[in-house]
Design goal:
The protein is an alpha+beta fold and 175 residues long. The chain is built from five helices and six strands. The chain has helices at 14-23, 45-62, 79-94, 113-126, 153-174; strands spanning 27-32, 39-43, 68-73, 98-104, 131-140, 143-150.
Length: 175
């Protein structure tokens, strides 16, 4: 049996251990049931559960959950507007979020969906180092959508190793 402060109190029969814990206003919690003899601890179980839930809540707060950010395009978009929206997509991806790209077609634009596909390919090429194509372009009603995910850090380490090799090769050449 372990006391509320973590000190060892000794080996007691179960009914005596429960009685001692109740006298001091604590609960008797079995910590290690497989040990010989089983190990129990005197503690305020409600307070313990509250602290555990607080720890879990704090862990969830510190986790960064990736969100899906949507950017909408039209088939006949000006070049500068396209670049601006591509910059938004890149910023979302660098922040660790996924980007959903929607190409909206209205009326007679539905006949020329290849224009939208070409724009989506431009976006894929422009975000090549930052993004990975997660869901390829596909039609959903009058919209064509695709999803880009942030590039993994493995690709970045590969590039770093490659630049390190170039530095090693150019170092001896300079001397």
């Amino acid at each position: 049996m372990i006391g509320p402060e973590g000190e060892q109190l000794g080996i007691f029969p179960t009914h005596v251990a429960i009685k001692k814990a109740e006298e001091q206003g604590f609960d008797l919690v079995e910590v290690s049931p497989t040990a010989k003899p089983p190990v129990c601890k005197m503690m305020d179980f409600g307070k313990y559960m509250y602290e555990q839930s607080k720890k879990v809540h704090a862990m969830k707060q510190h986790q960064k959950s990736g969100q899906i950010k949507e950017v909408k395009f039209r088939p006949h978009i000006n070049e500068h507007d396209l670049e601006t929206k591509i910059n938004y997509v890149q910023r979302f991806l660098e922040d660790g979020n996924k980007a959903k790209i929607s190409m909206m077609f209205r009326g007679r634009e539905m006949i020329h969906t290849e224009v939208g596909k070409e724009l989506l390919q431009k976006i894929i090429v422009a975000t090549e180092g930052v993004a990975v194509l997660e869901v390829p372009p596909r039609m959903e009603g009058s919209n064509m959508t695709m999803t880009l995910a942030p590039a993994t850090t493995q690709g970045k380490t590969g590039k770093t190793a490659g630049t390190g090799e170039k530095t090693d090769e150019s170092g001896p050449g300079k001397s």
